[in-house]
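Input record, target 12 of the design panel.
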C-alpha cells in the first residue's frame, strides 16, 4: 500500500516562502506521476502542480505559475513544492497525490488522475 506523508506547512507572512515535502513509501515512486492539490475552507480541492515520473514535464495551475515550483528526487522518494511570493489566497491544506499508473505519458491536472493521497499539511498566509 502506497503511503504519502507531507511536511513543511506552517504560518508565513504574505510575500514569504515555504517548501513542502512529500515522502512516498510502499510503491514504485520513481515510475509514478506526482501531484500537489490544495483545499481551502468551504472550497473544493483544486490542482496546484504535477510532475511526470521522469521529472521531464511539469504542470501548474494558472494561479501559481511563476511562484511555485514542483520537483522530485527519485533517490529519496520525495516530491517537493517550493512556494514563493505567497499570498493570503494560497491559504489551504495542501495534499500530495500519486498516480498509480506507472510510466504514464500524460501528466494529469485533475483529481481523478490520482489514486493515493497524503493526509495534508496546513499552509496559512497572513496579510
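The sequence produced for target 12 reads:
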Amino acid at each position: 500500500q502506497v503511503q504519502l506523508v507531507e511536511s513543511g506547512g506552517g504560518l508565513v507572512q504574505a510575500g514569504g516562502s515555504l517548501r513542502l515535502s512529500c515522502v512516498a513509501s510502499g510503491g514504485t515512486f520513481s515510475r509514478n506521476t506526482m501531484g500537489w492539490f490544495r483545499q481551502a475552507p468551504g472550497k473544493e480541492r483544486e490542482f496546484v502542480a504535477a510532475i511526470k515520473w521522469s521529472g521531464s514535464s511539469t504542470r501548474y495551475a494558472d494561479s501559481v505559475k511563476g511562484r511555485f515550483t514542483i520537483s522530485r528526487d527519485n533517490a529519496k522518494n520525495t516530491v517537493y513544492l517550493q512556494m514563493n511570493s505567497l499570498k493570503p489566497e494560497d491559504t489551504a491544506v495542501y495534499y500530495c497525490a500519486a498516480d498509480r499508473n506507472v510510466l504514464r505519458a500524460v501528466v494529469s491536472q485533475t483529481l481523478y488522475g490520482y489514486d493515493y493521497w497524503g493526509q495534508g499539511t496546513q499552509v496559512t498566509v497572513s496579510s
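The radius of gyration is 13 Å.
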